[in-house]
Description:
- This protein is an alpha/beta fold.
- Helix content is 39%, strand content 17%.
Amino acid sequence: MFPKTIAWQDNKVLILDQRQLPAKEVYLECADAAAVTEAIKEMAIRGAPAIGIAAAMGLALGALGITETDYPSFYSELNKICDSLKGARPTAVNLCWALARMQGVCEANEAKPVEAIKGLLVAEALAVLEQDIAINKQIGANGATLVPARATILTHCNAGALATGGYGTALGVIRRAWEDKKGIQVIATETRPLLQGARLTCWELRQEGIPVTLIADHMAGTLMRQGEIDLCIVGADRIAGNGDVANKIGTYTLAILAREHEIPFYVAAPLSTFDLTIKTGEEIPIEERDPSEVTTLGGRSTAPEGVAVRNPAFDVTPHRYISAIVTEDGIIRPPFEETLVRFRGADGR
């Protein structure tokens, strides 16, 4: 059974603190929107779909704390909470998508009493969670058709239950292939600098008995050259209108290596991760994180004090390196600029 990443309980948001995995399974208890915002910002919860769910729940939680009883004042305060949540992390489009969905519920029910609107916002946040799990399972079913029997699959970062409401996107495909008894095995990159592959992906797969081998990020090319990898599958944090994909830093490198070695490179993501308002990946904002994530490990310094550091959390993989994108509505294949047209507006954007 996949781990519970996030839950709503007694008008609080419970978040599995991924910073402490795999050593400890600790849940943060967030009593207000500010605590949820901090959990997103500090990566206690991460992964585009999971961030979207957390944002929806954070906004619902914030709504419960608003004391204004007239709609204009209530909506004004709600928008302030929205703005705070939007600033937590800039790259994952699911965050803004979820907040826009919640605002839409509020606007559609303007004539109702504020207390009723608060209840509707809580219900909508819970619906976002449940729908995400169902979507991920459909992504898994669609993507498993791309996985041959006894395949060795390379994945990068964590796009599993921990990055979603449950089941996962890229790991959802892997889960379904395992459930279908295809006899697969997984190669997981460690994913520097925060080691999401080592700490999270390996932990998830071992929980379910799916064979996984951990490698350092720079080993992937050699394994590809030696014929030890049959396909690659990763998640996404934002997908542009031409099929360019923003995902964890290092994805671009793996996609180039896969092309060089004629290995299929797949992306698995829900439609909520598509941002068809932007034409190419060049328009995707890339989050630059704290240098200490690169210069320290486990609280110990690993670099000279004062050294210059670059720490982009994501990179953009041009669509030409992507074999297909797996969604809940099916598998999208090149040419993406043409095939993505029919998905325009599917998620309300």
